[in-house]
Design goal:
Strand content: 5-15%
Radius of gyration: 34 Å
Oligomer: single chain
Number of strands: 8
């Protein structure tokens, strides 16, 4: 334990000193985070680039701890441990975050770089290749191991990045998560996971001294992405020597708050048809502020949630299968209650989105069924009235308001109006002047000859018109034109005088 305590203290002191230097340097370089009275609610501009301090402290302390381990009782473990993949990946993530803090990077480019680093980590051995099965042999993921590993890294990095909305929040979450992973690594006898976790906890604590509200230096993307990446690495290492499927859930439970916040953010933005990278003030910490908690109290409340999840994760490591199932059920119940209290907005959006989807699907099926049925009936119609009756039934199925069929041109040859047929939705009042109407006119032609035109309208009340209405009207317009030409031709043939018998 002496090794772990020493490296923890070294990481904390190094991070604190480097944070002071980074704060000074960021001010000199002008890399500051200014308030915008929307998401950034701090009172004045604060230096960024906190990730640089954490990076320096983390790897300096890790190398010292590893060198110390080579000359002590952990020599065999230290020789078998290779931390270089973590160094390579963390360096790339840090550079990505620094560029984003200093100049800004498009979200899609950031995501591609993050995914590339995750693929590289998989190639270097930091991967999820299987799931241990307590009831039989391990379940190998085979080719699925790559996308699962990439998803794990992307999820951890962006979860910490999204939750970094209050002073000290992201760093505190990582501190509790890394402390939990350190304890579980000790229980599983995992030297590499324990050393990586304790150094991460120390570096995060040293930075948190200056980042706790009111913060004098911020993580920035350089810090939040780096912390997420390191937590992902520690989570993979800490579960490598576990022999129960429960151990794979430990990093997930330890990161329960940022994972829940990220999931709700994705669902919220999906429900609003917004990109995932869109900013809002609906994160959990924003809702705690809206409930009347002050800045510091909101952070402390989030810390309390992290402590509860950390305690549950630690208890699961020493629990039997039945006890672990009960604990997991308790965590699930707490999560359900938290979602019910804090995610009313997201749940309402999801419910409305599902109801809208079901409504649109039913409307689409009803519209297309009505159009197909009407076009079939038109083939057997023997008069214009029968054709128009079939169209009226389809128009009611499509929920149209009005329709008009004009045969021939706009006027007859003698100046009188051409033959017109009108339809209105039964039982529906005429549209008011302030109603939002959608209308369209379809020319009806068959065999190169103009047979009339069809005009339709529908009150939308500002709702988007689905593609099924224009598509079905195109079908019905063609069916009307063809069958009008047929019916009119039959009528002309019947009305013509018989040929002279003597000719």
């Amino acid at each position: 334990m002496q090794l772990y305590f020493a490296t923890f203290a070294l990481a904390a002191i190094s991070a604190f000193v480097l944070s002071l230097l980074v704060r000074w340097g960021a001010r000199r370089l002008g890399v500051m985070d200014s308030p915008d009275d929307f998401r950034k609610i701090h009172g004045e501009s604060v230096p960024l680039l906190g990730g640089v301090a954490i990076f320096g402290a983390f790897f300096f302390s890790l190398l010292v701890g590893w060198w110390w381990a080579l000359s002590g009782p952990w020599q065999a473990y230290a020789k078998a441990t290779d931390f270089s993949p973590v160094l390579y990946g963390a360096t790339l993530i840090l550079l990505l975050g620094v560029l984003d803090d200093a100049a800004g990077i498009r979200p899609i480019l950031k995501l591609l770089v993050e995914a590339g680093v995750a693929v590289g980590m998989w190639c270097l051995g930091y991967r999820i290749s299987g799931v241990n099965n307590p009831f039989g042999p391990a379940i190998e993921l085979a080719w699925l191991g790559l996308p699962v590993t990439v998803f794990w890294f992307l999820g951890c990095m962006n979860a910490i990045n999204l939750i970094d909305g209050l002073d000290g929040l992201a760093a505190g979450v990582v501190l509790f998560a890394s402390g939990t992973l350190f304890m579980t690594s000790l229980l599983f006898g995992n030297f590499a996971g324990a050393l990586l976790a304790v150094v991460l906890a120390g570096a995060t604590l040293g930075f948190l001294i200056l980042n706790f509200p009111p913060a004098s230096v911020f993580l920035g993307d350089s810090g939040s992405l780096l912390l997420g990446f390191l937590v992902a690495c520690v989570g993979l290492l800490s579960s490598q020597k576990s022999y129960t499927v429960v151990a794979l859930l430990i990093p997930v439970i330890a990161l329960g708050l940022p994972i829940m916040d990220t999931t709700l953010a994705i669902l919220r933005r999906w429900s609003k048809a917004l990109p995932v990278s869109a900013s809002d003030r609906q994160h959990i910490h924003h809702k705690l502020l809206e409930m009347g908690l002050g800045h510091r109290n909101a952070v402390l409340a989030m810390y309390g949630g992290c402590l509860i999840l950390a305690a549950a994760a630690l208890l699961m490591t020493a629990a039997s299968s039945l006890e672990a199932a009960v604990l997991l059920g308790g965590v699930g119940l707490i999560t359900f209650l938290a979602v019910r209290i804090l995610a009313r907005h997201e749940l309402g959006l999801m419910r409305r989105s599902l109801e809208s989807y079901v409504h649109r699907r039913r409307r689409r099926l009803r519209s297309r069924t009505a159009g197909y049925t009407a076009s079939t009936r038109m083939r057997h119609a023997s008069s214009v009235a029968a054709l128009w009756q079939a169209f009226g039934q389809a128009a009611q199925g499509m929920d149209l308001d009005d329709a008009e069929l004009v045969l021939g041109g706009l006027e007859g040859p003698d100046g009188a109006e051409a033959e017109r047929h009108r339809w209105s939705h039964p039982g529906r009042a005429q549209a008011a002047d302030d109603d939002v109407l959608w209308s369209a006119t379809y020319p009806l032609s068959a065999g190169g000859r103009r047979v009339g035109r069809l005009r339709v309208s529908k009150a939308t009340n500002g709702e988007p018109l689905g593609p099924e209405v224009p598509e079905t009207l195109e079908l019905l317009g063609k069916a009307l034109a063809i069958n009008l030409s047929r019916v009119q031709g039959d009528a002309a043939t019947a009305a013509s005088p018989p040929p002279d018998a003597g000719s």
